[in-house]
């Protein structure tokens, strides 16, 4: 009886661990897919204007609309674009 109960517990834990691993793997693939799509969409040369001036220009607004659309059509909750400068990172994003 005790051995049977222990076997059930071990099996349940194993199934739970496998489920979590699979969920994390699927989530990572999805997240990297979002990141790859954004990297392909964003023109680093054009977005660097924002980093230099911190003024929202037409391209900034275009990128913002892109992410707003992605957020509405997916389960993406936050997005941030990090622009590397000599002084550090400039963040563009929304929650």
What does this protein structure show overall?
With 95 residues, this protein is an alpha+beta fold. Helix content is 69%, strand content 15%. It contains three helices and two strands, in the order αααββ. The chain has helices at residues 2-41, 44-53, 58-73; strands spanning 79-85, 88-94. The chain has a two-stranded antiparallel sheet with strand order 1-2. A hairpin with a 2-residue loop joins β1 and β2. The longest helix has 40 residues, at 2-41. The protein is elongated, with a radius of gyration of 21 Å.
In short:
With 95 residues, the chain is an alpha+beta fold. It is built from 3 helices and 2 strands; from the N terminus they run αααββ.
The rough form would be described as elongated
Helix content: 55-70%
CA-to-CA gap between the ends? 52 Å
Sequence of strands across the biggest β-sheet: 1-2
Strand content: 5-15%
Which structural traits does this protein have?
elongated, 95 residues, 3 helices
Secondary-structure topology with pairs:
Elements: H1 2-41, H2 44-53, H3 58-73, E1 79-85, E2 88-94
Antiparallel strand pairs: 1-2
